[in-house]
Each structure stands twice: as structure tokens, then as C-alpha cells.
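Progress note, sequence design subtask.
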């Protein structure tokens, strides 16, 4: 089984990997169909379904879809140019994708929010259409945004494209048990096995450059979030808190008045900085999703800034180990809040961060697996209930707590010998079953939980 570290961690734009990045990617794929079609389209239409409809406005799903149809991509997103293009489309009712003729597209009429039953494949469904001069549909495709920015067509989902292993890799573990067995047989660490798998697709230099680039974007995101003040967009009037907390923590340094538990504030502040940037539509790295993007960078930054002996040279080991765990969760369960609640997002992120931290602190393969299990186990059942459909409340603080749990899980695992009662595989399967049984109103629809008990104004 192979899911690349560069699929688990993708550079993109906030506020949501599944509701913003995914629809933008789907729209880009639809443009490719049109470029290869034997006919000329004169208009575009679309519809958003399930969670993409219910929380689409708060997640900017409509805007992301429109910009995707205009040729924008998450990894190279230009916010200033995007605003200009959106204004042009809204004013003219025309859209001009690269490599295609200008087409009719009036956003309010041609992109619908469908609040009916979910499409059959996934809670995050969307349909894109091209029309002829008469307005008749001449091309149509259904896409599913399955979490973390991953997108599949209906046919790909039906035929298990998300489970496609691709070309063979030397360590094709599909479960934690297989991962442990292969590590024992090969004498390699999880990170070394993951790197060996990556080298079947990229050179050593490409892997190293890519990993360094991922951490640079993560770290830059933390720093921007620690410096940028103001009110987050969306109407909840949520104030950015990370800069104020950070300034207070910096002022307290060296005063010998700080309680030991203040270290939790550092972790929370790093995570909140990322998720406040994400909520503002800034550049983030899916880890494994945008909604959970703060957990892992905060854990790395905590390790670098506060743990003696930490060194930047080990960050690739952290990321590769974390990606191996994230791949197992995605392959065997879900990383989508719309599919399995926030246990699949922050829970998965916490497990990944715990595994990575345990690895760079010298943990054995068994201790690393234990760390991931502890972190995920104590997120089981967590709902996804964003107020007003925005990735703000409870999402921003929740990332801080996810990071704290990750550090605690890694520390507990390092205190043991790797032997434990609940295997990681059983925990992942329990998460999958819990997500299946969870009421739809608690799965990123904003129809239950905090979303209906907190005034949306």
C-alpha cells in the first residue's frame, strides 16, 4: 500500500482541505476533460451536495469551485488575483479558463447548493456540467472530495481508486501489524521504510527538498499566525488569540514565575496560530487536513523550541513517520470530518504527531505504534460541529488540545516497552465503525452540537 508523504501533506489554501481545496481540484480536473473533449462548450454549471452544501458557504466551497473553473490551483493560489477574477466573473457572467474559450457562468444561477440527500458515494459530493449554445448538458462528471484534498470521480470511487496501490514498493504495509512485521524483518525504522517507498517515485534529492519545503511552509504559517492580529472573516467575530498569548508567554520567559503546565499554552498557541491562518484563508499544509493542520506543526515546533537535543535535521524522520500513520488511517478508515467526524481529522492528526514525536525522541517501532494508538484512542467519537460552518469554533482550540494529547501520548509510550492492550489497527477500525454509526448531524453539516447551541452571529 502506498500513499505518498506528499499526498498526506499538501501545500494548499484555507479554510478546508475537503471543502475548499478538494472542490478547486475537482474543478481543475473538469477543465482537463473539457480541454480533451471533441466539442466546444459554451457554458458551465455545477451543484454542491451533502456537507459541501450544508457548510459550503462557511468553507468558501462555492468560491473555491468557481476559482477552480477559472484555472486556480491550491498549491499556487494568488489571493489578490483571485479576488480580481471573482469580481470579473460576477460582473460579466462569463468565465475564462486557461486553454479554453470564454464560457457563460453566472455564479448565483449556475452553481447550486443542493440540500437534499447526499450523493451515493460520499458526504462531500459535487456535480460539474458543460452546456452547449442551447443550454443542454453535453458533459457531466460527479466528483467526491474524500478528505485531505483527495478527489475522486464517481467511477474512480466505485472501482476503489483510493485503494489503488500503483507501482510496487519495497514495504507495502497496509496495517500496523504489517508495518511492525516489516520493520522487524528489515531492521529499518518506520521512517526508513517510508523513505524507501518514496524513492520508487522520486529521487533522494526530490524527497529531501519536498520534506524541507513542507516544514518551511508549516513554520512560516506558525510565524504569520503568531504575528497577525485582527478578527477572522465569516461573521462570528472571532478574534485572533495566538499573537496575544504568544506575546504574554514571551514576556513571562525568564521570570521564574511560570507554572510547569504553561508548556501546554505554548503548544496550543503554535497550533492556534496555524488554524487562525487557515480560517483566514491563508497558506497551510494539510496534516492530514486543513481543519487539523495545526496539530502536527505545533508538535514539531514544541519539540524544536522546548525539548533539549531537538534538531531540525530530524524533521524528515518526523514527517515520514507521521505520514506512514496517516496513510494507514486513510487506507483503513477516513481522514474526512464529513465522513467520520472530527475523530478522523484532529484524531488522525494527533496520532500522526504522536508517532512522529516518539520517533525523533528515540522510540522503538513498537513504542511509535503505541503512541499513535494512544492519541487516536482518546479522540474516538469526537464530532465535527463547526459553528456557522466555519473552521473556527471549536476547530481552532481543538488543534491545540490535539497537540497536547499527541505529546502526552508520545511521552506515555516512551515510558513503556511498546506492549499494550489495544492495537493501533483495532483503534483505526473502531474509528471507522464509530464514524459509520455517527449521526449525520455531527459530521460537518453544522446541524447538531455546538453548531446549533451557539448563536451564529
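Output:
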Amino acid at each position: 500500500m502506498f500513499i505518498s508523504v506528499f499526498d498526506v501533506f499538501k501545500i494548499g489554501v484555507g479554510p478546508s482541505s475537503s471543502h475548499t481545496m478538494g472542490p478547486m481540484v475537482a474543478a481543475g480536473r473538469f477543465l482537463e476533460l473539457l480541454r480533451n473533449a471533441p466539442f466546444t462548450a459554451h457554458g458551465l454549471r455545477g451543484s454542491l451536495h451533502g456537507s459541501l452544501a450544508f457548510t459550503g458557504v462557511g468553507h468558501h466551497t462555492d468560491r473555491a469551485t468557481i476559482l477552480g473553473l477559472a484555472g486556480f490551483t491550491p498549491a499556487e493560489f494568488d489571493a489578490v488575483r483571485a479576488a480580481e477574477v471573482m469580481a470579473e466573473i460576477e460582473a460579466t457572467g462569463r468565465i475564462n479558463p486557461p486553454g479554453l474559450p470564454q464560457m457563460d457562468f453566472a455564479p448565483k444561477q449556475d452553481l447550486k447548493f443542493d440540500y437534499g440527500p447526499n450523493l451515493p458515494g460520499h458526504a462531500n459530493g459535487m456535480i460539474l456540467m458543460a452546456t452547449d449554445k442551447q443550454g443542454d448538458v453535453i458533459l457531466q462528471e460527479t466528483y467526491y472530495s474524500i478528505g485531505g484534498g483527495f478527489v475522486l470521480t464517481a467511477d474512480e470511487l466505485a472501482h476503489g481508486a483510493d485503494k489503488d496501490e500503483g507501482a510496487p514498493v519495497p514495504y507495502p504495509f497496509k496495517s500496523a501489524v504489517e508495518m511492525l512485521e516489516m520493520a522487524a524483518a528489515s531492521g529499518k525504522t518506520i521512517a526508513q521504510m517510508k523513505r524507501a517507498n518514496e524513492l520508487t517515485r522520486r529521487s533522494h534529492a526530490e524527497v529531501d527538498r519536498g520534506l524541507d519545503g513542507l516544514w518551511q511552509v508549516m513554520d512560516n504559517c506558525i510565524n504569520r499566525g503568531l504575528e497577525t492580529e485582527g478578527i477572522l472573516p465569516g461573521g462570528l467575530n472571532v478574534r485572533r488569540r495566538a499573537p496575544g498569548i504568544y506575546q504574554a508567554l514571551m514576556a513571562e520567559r525568564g521570570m521564574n514565575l511560570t507554572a510547569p503546565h504553561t508548556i501546554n499554552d505554548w503548544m496550543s498557541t503554535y497550533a492556534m496560530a496555524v488554524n487562525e491562518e487557515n480560517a483566514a484563508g491563508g497558506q497551510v499544509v494539510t496534516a492530514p487536513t486543513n481543519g487539523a493542520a495545526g496539530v502536527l506543526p505545533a508538535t514539531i515546533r514544541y519539540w524544536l523550541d522546548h525539548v533539549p537535543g531537538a534538531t531540525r535535521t530530524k524533521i524528515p524522520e518526523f514527517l515520514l513517520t507521521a505520514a506512514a500513520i496517516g496513510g494507514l488511517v486513510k487506507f483503513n478508515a477516513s481522514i474526512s470530518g464529513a465522513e467520520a467526524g472530527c475523530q478522523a481529522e484532529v484524531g488522525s492528526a494527533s496520532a500522526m504527531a504522536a508517532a512522529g514525536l516518539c520517533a525523533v525522541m528515540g522510540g522503538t517501532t513498537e513504542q511509535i505504534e503505541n503512541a499513535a494508538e494512544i492519541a487516536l484512542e482518546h479522540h474516538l467519537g469526537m464530532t465535527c460541529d463547526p459553528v456557522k460552518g466555519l473552521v473556527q469554533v471549536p476547530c481552532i482550540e481543538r488543534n491545540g488540545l490535539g497537540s497536547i494529547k499527541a505529546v502526552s501520548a508520545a511521552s506515555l509510550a516512551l515510558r513503556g516497552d511498546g506492549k499494550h492492550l489495544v492495537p493501533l489497527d483495532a483503534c483505526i477500525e473502531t474509528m471507522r465503525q464509530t464514524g459509520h454509526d455517527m449521526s449525520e448531524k455531527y459530521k460537518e453539516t453544522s446541524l447538531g452540537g455546538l453548531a446549533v447551541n451557539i448563536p451564529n452571529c
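The first helix runs from residue 5 to 8. Work on this subtask will continue into the next period as scheduled.
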